[in-house]
Amino acid sequence: MEPADVDLSAPLGALTLPNPLTTASGCAGYGRELAKFVPLEELGSVTTKTIMPYPRAGLATPRMAETPSGMLNGIGLQGPGIDAFVRYELPWLAERGARVLVSIAGERLEEFADTAARLNGRPGVVGIELNMSCPNLAGRGLLFAGNPATSYDVVRAVREATDPALPVYAKLTPDVTSITEIAAACVQAGADGLSMINTTLGLAIDLDTMRPALSATTGGLSGPALRPIAVRCVYQVHAEMLAGRIAPVPILGMGGIRTGRDALEFTLAGASGVAVGTALFNDPAAPLRILDELRAELAARGFARYTDAVGFAHRPVSRPSPPGSASPTVPRGVAPGAPVPGAAVPGPAVPDPAVPRSASASGSPTERTS
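Now predict its structure.
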């Protein structure tokens, strides 16, 4: 199979995008700088820097620090606010044919809902991503994404304020006891997909000043150092979907993706799409290179469609055939006895998280913590 023959179409909620790649929120601004290196319309989507309901100056400098195989950042969600975004940035993106996944945040439930409502019917907007890793002012400053109850409340508030046809993705933090419980609450509240994962909290000390390297003391760790954690989270949540404990929805995987092999690793773990973030800082043309490499990696393993590879690492490996028996030909990279991509897999059918649900779930979590 030739790489050009691979169909990279991928789901975003109930929508189908031409390929699975997007930018990770905060790493490409609102697309203006990235457009100098990559035609935005060639990406599956463009995820914006997080938008708040009001202009925000962000944190004091220094805001970024390099770490081994990663980067710490403490930006503080600096931005112009939703009014300026819909007036200046969104029309610019739409004119260039970008499919825009708008990242939003708020410090209260009503701020999430009001900001999301401003995006209904806007040209170019293909979905909303909820950045819930921000303090809940009504909940003692704890993160919305820190427990199932507040995660449920945010998703439910946004889902009720937006067009049902507009996909809503909940972005999850790895800094929780059980990410599968948070994922279940978000899906139960009506999330059409999950973005996994946000940065994890870290700290670096500047040996010259002998003080924390960031003005905020701690910051979010991103880059290749985060990837094994992110792949683990995606794998665990996808496994719960296959087991029927979470309704199947697409997962947008992110965390340290630099190559097509990295993107494939997330896909095999259960991601139906991938986001490139920190790699853009030293290689702004990375998205197109990664797409080409992903095509080649899929073709080398006999996958005719990107969606055929979603969650493949969860498929059971059959016992080897007895000596002397016929052994079917399998694609390179697929273990002998493992199901061949595109072939019928024996056994009971399992839900496929690569296929979006026909309707959003409703109800409340079975257990709500305070």
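The helical segments are 82-95, 109-117, 148-161, 179-188, 227-242, 260-269, 286-300, 306-309.
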